[in-house]
Amino acid sequence: MEEIVSFARGLGQSPRFRGKMLCGEPLAPRTTMRVGGPAAALAVPDDAESAAYAACAAIRAGLPLFVLGGGSNIIVGDGGLDALVVSLERLDGISYGDGLLTAGGGARFDAITEFCAKNCLRGLSSFAGLPGTAGGAAYMNARCYGVSAGDLIESVSYIDLDGIRAEKCVSDDFALANLAKVYHNKRGEWAYKKSPFQSFRSLILSVTFCVEAVGMSEDNESAIRRENEGFVEDRRNKGHFRAPSAGSVFKNDRGFGKPSGQLVDEAGLKGLAVGGAQIAPWHGNFIINTGSATAGDIRALVERARTAVMERTGFSLETEIIFV
């Protein structure tokens, strides 16, 4: 950890890095589950070039690196992350042109869907209320109300962290343009909760979505806003916002015939608690933090649910949440 802290302090002083550099920074407040220990060092770059520079410098130094988006689908370990964590929270710009909306990798969907309403753009309302970012949605191929991110993505700007040649990734002539790549959507490369970006380490700089401009008018803005609010209200009614959680714990397997939440419910597990973690009494596929949960509590509860469902049905639940 001392090596990472020393590296981070030096990086924070570099004129190539614009942003904040924090050592021993708690990560729990940066996740929707509100659990986990601190990062050895947390970089919060102001722009894409600074994010790329920090990530590449860590790779060149042979140090562990973790890219943090909205923290909505991860469980950080109780011991924290002995790594340089690069937060994309300030890569949150949103723009529109010619039927395409481009959002920074750290842009949150509440801001994206609000931008759509103000600019009378239709197509992303089903993601209203999703507590995640554009980059996270691309990485996970987030699915909301039957619509997957991969159905709407036109392209993704990213850095292939695995493909960088470490000895050349940071130099006097470092330039983002030399590293950034653009992925143009190939529909056959996406599947349920699967994206091309899960096969390698990447830093997603921005995501471009296909949207429909319906014409600027108060009526159209109101209609899109009502549509957005309808999805948010449905999430609220289903208990998505009642307590800290990481969203759906287990992936659904349509081939098995029942959603994972129903399998957990039929195993009699709703309301089951381990420490401060609990399977939500109102939804079998949510684990909530009742106030004092640890990552260990959550992991133990996941295993209890997997074992019970396996013994009852022979089906092995696959986690959607990621333990880091």
What is the residue-mean pLDDT, rounded to a whole number? 93
Strand content: 25-35%
**Main sheet characteristics:** 5 strands, antiparallel
**What is the terminal separation in angstroms?**
17 Å
Poorly predicted ranges (pLDDT <50, ≥5 residues)?
none
Q: Order of strands in the sheet with the most strands?
A: 6-7-13-11-12
Structural class by sheet pairing and helices: alpha+beta
Shape: globular
Helix content: 25-40%
What order do the SSEs take from the amino end to the carboxyl end, as H and E?
A: HEEHEEEEEHEHEEHEEEEHEHEEEHE
Number of strands: 19
If helices are DSSP runs of H or I spanning 4 or more residues, what is the number of helices?
8
What is the assembly state of the chains in this entry? single chain
Question: Could you tell me the radius of gyration in angstroms?
Answer: 20 Å
